[in-house]
UniProtKB/TrEMBL annotation, chains A, B:
It comes from Virgibacillus profundi. Gene3D superfamilies: 3.30.70.2860, CinA-like (3.90.950.20), MoaB/Mog-like domain (3.40.980.10). PANTHER family: NICOTINAMIDE-NUCLEOTIDE AMIDOHYDROLASE PNCC (PTHR13939), NMN AMIDOHYDROLASE-LIKE PROTEIN YFAY (PTHR13939:SF0). It holds the Pfam family MoCF_biosynth. Residues 7-174 form the MoaB/Mog domain. This is Putative competence-damage inducible protein.
C-alpha cells in the first residue's frame, strides 16, 4: 500500500513569539496516526507573505498531504490565502453561503460588520468548501500538483470540528486505508498512574494489539486502548477482551469510557435512582453544583444549593447551629454534617452534600490550607463524613475538593 | 543593527505522533523574543537520518541562529550528532568530563552502565561544551558556515538549564544587543477582535516600537505591546505612551494589564467600595460565585449565594413570588430582578446579582437555548436588568453568561 507523507503547517507570528503553543499540531498528529497516516514534519511560520509562500512551496515538493492551520481570519496579517494563491495561481472567490453566515452573525448581534470580515468568506475556486459550524471562516480542501491541501482556521475548536467532520473522512478515502483503527479510553478515579501501571505491568508488556497506553490527567488516570483489524467488529472484540482483562484487576477504580465524565456518571446514577441532590458549598463556592449542572439533563436531579462562603451565611441562611460554629468551628466534621443535612432539608432533596475547608493561602481556625471536610446526608438520616488534606495552591485545592466530592458521591451511589 | 534570523528545530518522532507537545519551542521563543532575537521558523522532524540532515541543511541556508532540541540521548534513534556530522564533516570526540559524570551517575546508583550511554558524552571537536547540570547529555554551541548552532537535550528541564546558563548569554554577546525588551498585555472585554483592530488600524499600522499585536482569547481580547530601548525607563515610557494612545480610543472596554483578571478586578473594586456581594444562580449553577471565590482574599467581599436551579428552590428558598413565576415565568426580567433583590436581602449583602435563562439544549418556557437575563440589585433599591442571547452549546452558553456577568458588574462598580 502506498505510504502517504503528511506535513502540518501552522501560520502565525504569535506562535513564533511563544505567546501560544502549537497544540493544533499535536492533536492533528494524534488523529492522523490513528488513521494510519504518517506525519513527517511540523512547521511554524510567521505572518509574512514571502516566508509563508516558501514554506508552502517546500511542503508541496516533499509531502502528499499538507494541513495548514491559521491565517484565514479577518485581519491584514491573515495571509494564508494570498500565499497559496501566489504559488498556485488559483482564483479566489467569495463563497456566498459563508458570506451569508457572517452577515447573519452580525445582524443577530445587532452589531456592525466591519469590512475586513468579508475577507473570511473568500475561498479558492474549485476547492471543497468546509462548513465552519462553530466560527466564521470556512475551511477548504483541494488538490494541487498531486498534493492534497487542507486549510483550516487556527482556533482549536473550529479546527477540530472541520478536521473531524471533513478532513479525516476525505483523507481516509484518499489513502484507501482499509484497516480499521479503533480506540477506546478507560477512565479511573482514586488510583495513581504509577500504581495503575504497576498493577497492569505484565498485561501492558505482553500486549501489542490493542496497544495499552496509561496517561495521567487532571481528573484521574486514563488508559487508551488502540486496536487495528480488518473490520469494526474484530477491532471491537479485541478492545473488549483487553478491557475485561484490565477491569478484572483494577475495576474498582473504573468509572467510564471515552466521553463519559465522572459528573455525567453521577447524574446517570441519580436519575436511575430517581434522587434529587442539593449542595452546601463553602470553599468550593458553587463549583461542585456547577459541575453537575454542566451535564445535559441535570435539571431532573439537581435542585441547587447554598454557597455559604461567609460564616454568617452558614449560620443565618443554612442554619448551622451557633453552638457548632463556636465550639467546633466551621472547618469541622460537625459543621460539614450539619451543612449537608440542612441543605438537603431546605431544598427538599433526597441527598445533601457539603464542602467546608481551607482553600488558602492562609490558615483558618488553626487548620492549614488544604484541610477539607466533605459530608453526605440522605433521607434515612445516615450521614457520611470524611476529612482530606489536599496539596497545591488555592484553586488546585478547590478543584481537587470538587473531584473528590464527585468520586465519593459516585461510590456512594454505586 | 544587524537583524539575526533564528530557527528552532525539534528532533523526535514522538512529537510527530502527537505523544508530546513541542513546549520547548514555545519557551525558547518567549525567551529569545525578550533578548530581541526574532524567530522565523519552528520545525519538527522525526528520528530519521536523511530527513534530519535535510532539515539541518535548510536551516543553515536561511538562518543565522539555529537551536536544536532533542536527539542527543543514548538510544539508536537519537541521531542529531550523526545528521549534523554528515552536513558539516566535523569530527566527533568523547568529552572526558561528561563521560566521567555519566560513569559516576551509574556508580552512585550501583547500576550497570549499558554501552549505549557512552554515546551521550560525544561532542563535536572544537565546539563549546555546555555542562548539563540536571541530566547526562551535555549541550554544544558551535559556528558553522556563519551560522551559530546550539544543540540541547529535548528534556525540558535540561534544555531550560542549558539555554539559560549558556546559550542566551552566548547569543547576547553574539548579537551585541544591549537593548532592553519589555512587553505588556492590555486586556479588553465587550469588544471583538476585528472591531478593536478596526478602531486602532492607523495606530497599529504606523507603530513599530512598541509593536502592537491584538489577539482574541476565550475571555476577551488582549493587545500585546512590545517595546525595545536602551533602558528599562525608556522602554516603560514607550509602552506607556502607546497604551494611553490606545486607551484614548477604546478605553471603555479596558479592564486590566498582564496577569490581572476580570474577576480579580471585580474583587478589587468591591474591596475598595467595601461592598459584599451575593449571587442567585440558575443556569450558571454556582459558576459565577465560584469564579469570584477563585480570587485570593475574596472572602472579605463574597458572602455566597443560592443556586436555584430548580423552580421550587427559586420559590421556596429564594422567595421569588408565585405570581411572578406563574405570570412571567422563570426566564424573565421580573424573575431575574426578584432573584437579585432576594439574594441580596437574605445574605445581607450590599449587592445582589442574578442569572436566569436557558442553557439548553432544549428550550424552556418558549425561550430558545441561549436566552439569559442578568440582574443587579443594590441597597438603594435601584435594579438593573439586561437580556442576552448567547450562541453555542450548553456549557459555552453558561461560560459566556458568567463572563457577561463579570463584565456588567465591573462596569457597574466602575
Amino acid at each position: 500500500m502506498r505510504q502517504y507523507k503528511a506535513e502540518i503547517i501552522a501560520v502565525g507570528t504569535e506562535l513564533l513569539l511563544g505567546q501560544i503553543s502549537n497544540t493544533n499540531a499535536q492533536w492533528l498528529s494524534q488523529q492522523l496516526a490513528s488513521y494510519g497516516i504518517n506525519v513527517y514534519n511540523h512547521v511554524v511560520v510567521g505572518d509574512n507573505l514571502k516566508r509563508v509562500e516558501e514554506t508552502f512551496a517546500l511542503a508541496e515538493s516533499r509531502s502528499d498531504i499538507i494541513i495548514v492551520t491559521g491565517g484565514l481570519g479577518p485581519t491584514d496579517d491573515d495571509l494564508t490565502r494570498e500565499a497559496f494563491q501566489s504559488i498556485s495561481e488559483l482564483e479566489i472567490i467569495e463563497h456566498p453561503d459563508s458570506m451569508g453566515k457572517i452577515k447573519h452573525f452580525f445582524e443577530k448581534r445587532k452589531s456592525v460588520m466591519t469590512p475586513n470580515n468579508r475577507k473570511q468568506a473568500r475561498v479558492f475556486k474549485g476547492s471543497e468548501v468546509l462548513e465552519n459550524k462553530v466560527g466564521m471562516a470556512p475551511g477548504m480542501i483541494l488538490t494541487h500538483n498531486k498534493s492534497t491541501w487542507a486549510f483550516l482556521p487556527g482556533v482549536p475548536r473550529e479546527m477540530k470540528q472541520l478536521a473531524t467532520d471533513d478532513v479525516f473522512p476525505h483523507l481516509q478515502k484518499l489513502t484507501g486505508n482499509k484497516d480499521i483503527i479503533k480506540s477506546t479510553v478507560l477512565k479511573f478515579i482514586g488510583i495513581g498512574e504509577s500504581k495503575l501501571e504497576h498493577e497492569l505491568k505484565d498485561i501492558i508488556k505482553a500486549q501489542s494489539n490493542p496497544t495499552i497506553a496509561p496517561l495521567a490527567q487532571n481528573d484521574g488516570v486514563v488508559i487508551r486502548l488502540t486496536a487495528k483489524d480488518t473490520s469494526m467488529e474484530k477491532a471491537d472484540s479485541l478492545l473488549e477482551q483487553t478491557k475485561q482483562q484490565i477491569l478484572h484487576r483494577v475495576g474498582t477504580f473504573f468509572y467510564g469510557v471515552d466521553d463519559q465524565t465522572l459528573e455525567g456518571q453521577v447524574i446517570t446514577l441519580l436519575k436511575q435512582q430517581n434522587k434529587q441532590i442539593a449542595a452546601a458549598e463553602s470553599l468550593t463556592g458553587g463549583l461542585f453544583m456547577s459541575k453537575l449542572i454542566s451535564v445535559e439533563g441535570a435539571s431532573e436531579v439537581c435542585s441547587g444549593g447554598i454557597v455559604c462562603y461567609d460564616t454568617t451565611v452558614k449560620e443565618n441562611v443554612l442554619g448551622v447551629s451557633k453552638n457548632t460554629i463556636q465550639s467546633k468551628g466551621t472547618v469541622s466534621e460537625e459543621c460539614a454534617v450539619e451543612m449537608a443535612v440542612n441543605v438537603r432539608k431546605q431544598l427538599n432533596s433526597a441527598i445533601g452534600i457539603s464542602f467546608t475547608g481551607v482553600a488558602g493561602p492562609g490558615e483558618v481556625e488553626g487548620h492549614p490550607a488544604g484541610t477539607v471536610f466533605i459530608a453526605i446526608s440522605n433521607h434515612t438520616g445516615e450521614n457520611l463524613v470524611e476529612k482530606f488534606i489536599f496539596q497545591g495552591n488555592r484553586n488546585t485545592i478547590r478543584h481537587r475538593t470538587v473531584l473528590k466530592g464527585l468520586e465519593i458521591l459516585y461510590k456512594y451511589l454505586k
